[in-house]
Amino acid sequence: MSEPLKSSRYPSSALSMAQLFRVVLFDIDGTLLRTGGAGVRAFRRTAALWGHPGAMDHVRFHGRTDSSLARQFLDAAGLDASSSECQRFLHAYSFLLDDELSRNAGELCPGVLDLLNGFAGLPNPPIIGLLTGNIRVGAVLKLMPHALESRFILGAFGDDHESRDELAQIAHARASVFLNQSLTGEQILVVGDTPADIQCARAIQAPCLAVATGSYSVAELATFEPRWVTSNLAA
Ligand SMILES: [Mg+2]
């Protein structure tokens, strides 16, 4: 299965593939859903509350963890960038994210619902988890409008660590504890939409299914050599 997935092989081949794994870890933004920039707007509104409205204007958010973005903002603004200040910034951000999402919760990416439903119908379904740069409350706020928040039973989040590679290690460890066995990376599938997802999968020797429903094309993602790349989860 080293070839990129052909569109015509979805969704049945994705489900067949999933049976090969004990755990499937999903990124959120650009992979499960698109919020139309709610997170970025909430971050910029929080930066404005902190007195530096333009500080995040030229920052690329894709694939980043919320905690690393908060620290980058506080550093760039010359403010106290301690853990407690990052946490205070992210608390304020979560309220503004809720406000942004209440205006427009965005949409699920193509094929996501069918794929998640398909997992449930497998005789030996994999554990479905999250591997996301969103803080926990941000992840829940983004998933709730689509009734997906209870589909994922473990995960690693942007408030667990600033580094996405470390988040992959944390998710790997949590999955091993949950299943009460020492999982190898090859037993875990990471699904994500950015080079950072591909890289963090590599950090735990796990294969990555890269999906071009975020801001990177199939061709761009392919240059980072994920195990598989597809235009979307329904194609
Ligand atoms: Mg993403």
Describe this protein's structure.
- It is built from nine helices and eight strands.
- It has helices spanning 12-18, 38-49, 66-76, 83-103, 112-120, 136-143, 164-179, 195-203, 218-222; strands spanning 23-26, 33-34, 107-108, 127-131, 154-156, 188-192, 208-211, 228-230.
- The strands form two sheets. A six-stranded parallel beta sheet has the order 5-4-1-6-7-8. A two-stranded antiparallel ribbon has the order 2-3.
- Strand 4 (127-131), helix 6 and strand 5 form a beta-alpha-beta unit.
- Helix 2 crosses helix 4 and helix 7 crosses helix 8.
- The longest helix is centred in the middle third of the chain and has 21 residues, at 83-103.
- Bound molecules: magnesium ion.
Record keyword descriptors for this entry.
single chain, 235 residues, alpha/beta, Rossmann fold, 2 domains, 9 helices, 8 strands, 42% helix, globular, disordered N terminus, binds magnesium ion
Q: Summarize the main sheet.
A: 6 strands, parallel
Overall residue-averaged pLDDT value: 91
CATH C-level category of the largest domain = Alpha Beta
Kindly report how far apart the N and C termini lie. Answer: 17 Å
| Number of separate structural domains | 2
Beta fraction:
5-15%
Tell me the Rg in angstroms: 17 Å
- As a percent range, the share of helical residues equals 40-55%
Question: What is the overall shape?
Answer: globular
Bound molecule types: magnesium ion
Contiguous runs where pLDDT drops below 50 for at least 5 residues: 1-11
